[in-house]
Design goal:
This protein is mainly beta. It is 4% helix and 51% strand. The protein is built from 2 helices and 29 strands. The longest helix has 10 residues, at 432-441.
Length: 469
């Protein structure tokens, strides 16, 4: 369905932030719905949250990724930036506890234009960080850096991944499906022909030895944004791909254990769309077999702010239902999606104020029933603006988000995803655009970690009805 275009399809509008009584919940599953969210109710309590700054050091902090540790702490990676000139300074690894206390912090010199992307913890307890850097003699070649750290954050080793013909940008990092090693998501752009760009997956052992590499080149520009364990030893990849009319469409591939394509599906939506995150759904309510929950964004045809796009598909990629979440004052982008054992879906998105309005950018968490009905709506913020970077499930169902916040307001227009959708050589990977915006707006960046509460137990009223004699 094209957002903003009149249609004969029935549109069900759900109210966010409102939990329906069990007896009133809809037990059918409308295939499609456009949902206008309520304005955010800021100030939702957390289990704990903490800011990290370099007060007195004339430095700002940007956090990019975090993972939970035993004992209820969070280990995160970021970088420091000088207030004067906004020059990137150090890579920072830090551990924070639920009282907001820094238990451990380590600083390492940044490589040229280094921007951390993702951190995971390996099976033996070491940490692995993937960053985008610039290298070679001219410092113009875009490369990917993998760096290993011990459990206390001490540097162990590094590996730089590059190509003689293509610029590489890392888009993500996930554990291998067999839990031995990891898979790196890379976007490749031909230095001589910018239209030649495609997604890649590279499988490594925990120590960094490459097991296989796959380049996905169907003859049209594409990009893999997210990768998830499919639950059967393979993977499901989510991303974007150019279609004949020039739009970008959501793209999903089901992959085997070695990255081979088992099937792929393309989903055009609105003026442009992308699927960024995926989660395995082993028993979708009302449907047999395995399936997947996909999260992305779609640019409406009416020119409004980007909508968050959530879709459930079956084991062969056939859509089962989809939802679009909109608000005229905010543009939404994906942080994470998770499906818990009882069938509910948690959606984590960034909400960026658009159109020069004075609204506060925040992190939004929606909780949906197995049939896509909103049963929870939470908005999180610290400071003036919040920019969520990473989501991971935590201890006992808690939800952990790593973010960068701003201590002063600034106006920031939203970049429509239909304009310059695929990464090119002109895209920023070093943070200069962000730093310039901060300089113009007089902002002060700080790192922020928050742990949202676990969801209350949930008994699906529709399943109870089915089980009744």
């Amino acid at each position: 369905m094209n957002i903003g275009r009149a249609t004969l399809l029935l549109i069900i509008v759900f109210l966010s932030g409102f939990s329906q009584p069990a007896g009133a919940q809809m037990c059918s599953t409308p295939f499609e719905a456009i949902i206008t969210l309520h304005p955010p109710q800021l100030g939702v309590p957390t289990v704990w949250d903490a800011k990290y700054s370099r007060d007195g050091k004339h430095e700002m902090v940007q956090l990019f990724s975090g993972v939970p540790k035993d004992g209820g702490t969070v280990f995160a990676v970021g970088r420091t930036v000088a207030q004067a000139g906004f020059r990137p300074l150090d890579l920072v690894l830090l551990e924070m506890n639920r009282r907001g206390r820094v238990l451990n912090e380590k600083f390492y010199p940044l490589k040229e234009a280094e921007v951390p992307v993702k951190m995971i913890v390996l099976k033996k307890g070491d940490y692995l960080v993937v960053s985008n850097i610039r290298g070679w003699s001219s410092k113009e070649r875009r490369q990917v850096r993998l760096s290993w750290y011990s459990s206390d954050g001490s540097f162990r080793s590094e590996k730089v991944i590059d190509d003689s013909d293509y610029d590489y940008d890392a888009a993500g990092l996930v554990h291998a499906a067999d839990d031995d090693g990891f898979v790196l998501i890379v976007h490749a752009v031909n230095r001589s022909q910018e239209s030649d760009q495609h997604g890649m997956l590279m499988r490594f052992t925990a120590g960094g030895q490459q097991a296989w590499s796959r380049a996905y080149r169907p003859g049209i520009p594409n990009r893999i944004e997210g990768l998830s364990d499919a639950g059967d030893g393979g993977y499901v990849a989510a991303g974007r791909i150019k279609i004949d009319d020039g739009r970008n469409a959501g793209w999903v591939m089901k992959l085997g254990y070695d990255g081979t394509v088992l099937w792929q599906r393309i989903f055009p939506r609105g003026a442009g769309a992308v699927l960024s995150r995926a989660a395995h759904a082993s028993a979708m309510s009302g449907h047999e077999g395995q399936g997947f929950i996909l999260l992305g964004t779609s640019a409406p045809l009416d020119g409004g702010a980007d909508a968050a796009w959530l879709m459930a598909v079956d084991a062969l990629g056939e859509p089962q239902w989809q939802r679009y979440f909109r608000h005229p004052d905010f543009s939404f982008s994906s942080i994470g999606v998770d499906r818990i054992a009882d069938g509910r879906v948690t959606v984590i998105v960034n909400a960026k104020a658009v159109g020069g309005r004075s609204h506060r950018g925040h992190v939004r968490m929606l909780v949906l029933s197995p049939r896509g009905v909103i049963i929870g709506d939470e908005a999180y913020i610290e400071g003036v603006q919040a920019d969520g970077k990473d989501y991971v499930p935590g201890w006992n169902g808690e939800r952990i988000v790593t973010a960068t916040i701003e201590s002063d307001s600034r106006s920031s227009g939203a970049e429509m995803i239909g304009d310059n959708f695929l990464a090119t050589k002109s895209d920023d990977v070093s943070g200069e655009k962000t730093d310039a915006a901060q300089k113009n707006g007089g902002t002060m960046s700080e790192g922020w970690i928050f742990v949202a509460t676990a969801l209350d137990p949930y008994d699906d009223p529709c399943m109870i009805k089915r089980a009744a004699p």
